Amino acid sequence: MSLQLVWFVLIGLIAAIYAATDGYDLGVGVLYPFLARNDAERGVLRQTIGPVWDGNEVWLLVFGGALFGTFPVAYAVALSAFYLAIMLVLFGLILRAVSLEFRSHSSGALGLLWDTAFFVGSLLPALLFGVAVGDVVRGVKLGPSMAGQPGNYAGSFFSLLHPYALLVGVTGLTAFVLMGATWAAFKSDGELQARAARAASWAQALLVALFVLTTVYTALDSSAKAQLSDGLGRAAGWVALAVLVAGLAYGRWAMLAKNDGRAFLGAMVTVLGLVAVGGAGLYPNLTRALTTPGSVAVTTHNASASHLTLTVMLVFALVALPVVIAYQVYVHRLFSGRVRSEDVEY
To answer: Coil, helix or strand for 299?
Structure first.
């Protein structure tokens, strides 16, 4: 197994962990104005993610640092292609962080302003992450190859808003909403818990419908259909699909059994399966290139750092990643249990 493949899997794992952790607190933010009926319930929703949201976002930094260190060409292409989108994501994350800190000290019109900021700051990243994945899968416009290396991005921000990418974005958003709803049901009680459980059931049904629609669109789109043939042509693709189906089935069983904790676990496995399905079909590409004369895709081979760099970073990752995971497990155990209105600090 080459170091490039090892790092492709590791970066995919980091992306999956980020999606499965920050995904649920982004989902809570998207559902925030629809689940909560009063200030007490809004405070409970904020408190469910208050102790953990910033730790979850560490995985986004880890993903960016790992991509920069191991596949610097892919990092450069991503920055040039998704620059405005990345700025919007960062704006959303900053807006969400500020609103979480200031909302508990505000009321009236100012409180409504921070509530809106929390919703918008959660919606933007949750949607744009999926749109970016859709563009990576379908391909972006790259200039002519230079000595076998991928060219610079040759499109615009609006060329990234292709219907296929938007559909993938909505599918990803729905997956985050499913996670957010199951987390809110797991961490709250009373009427708020009941509403969150119903939202989770509807979100899962919608996610299945969108996944089927996205699969059909992928098969019909000349630029994206390689995702299916490459993914289902490998054992890893079928394993990833099995993980996805298992997560959906387990989550539905848990919802019917009214077991909120297991429903949340099912949602997490579902998101991990979605990321795995995308990665299995994408390899060895990191970003596909639209079929323009002279352009080449960004792959694990033409975007890779040196063998020494990959080796040193792998040693560091094998030491650091288990520590970060252990810390997050500890924090979640420390703040386990349902949140009640008298516990609200955020």
So the answer is: strand
Model pLDDT for residues 205-223, shown as the tens digit of each residue: 999 999 999 999 999 988 8
For the stretch 164-181, pLDDT in tens is 999 999 999 999 999 999
Q: Report the distance separating Cα 301 and Cα 285, nearest Å.
A: 9
Tokens of 105: 């000290």
Name the residue with higher pLDDT: 229 or 35.
35
pLDDT, mean over the chain:
90
Instruction: Please report how the helices 163-187 and 3-35 are oriented relative to each other, as an axis angle in degrees rounded to 10.
Output: 70
Residue 36's alpha-carbon distances to 28, 45, 92, 207, 218, in angstroms, are 10, 8, 21, 22, 37
Q: Distance between CA 64 and CA 229 in Å, rounded?
A: 28
The C-alpha atoms of residue 279 and residue 288 are separated, in whole angstroms, by: 12
Q: In sequence order, which ranges of the chain are alpha helices (DSSP H)?
A: 3-35, 39-49, 53-70, 72-81, 83-103, 108-138, 163-187, 190-220, 226-232, 235-256, 260-282, 307-334
Pull the structure tokens for residue 110: 């100012």
What is the distance between the alpha carbons of residues 77 and 287, in angstroms, rounded to a whole number? 9
d(CA 143, CA 281): 24
Q: Cis link prior to 284 (omega < 30° from 0)?
A: yes
* pTM score, whole prediction: 0.94
281, 287, 291, 294: CA torsion to nearest 10: -130
How many CB atoms neighbour CB 81 within 10 A?
A: 26
Quick one: tokens of 345? 């600090």
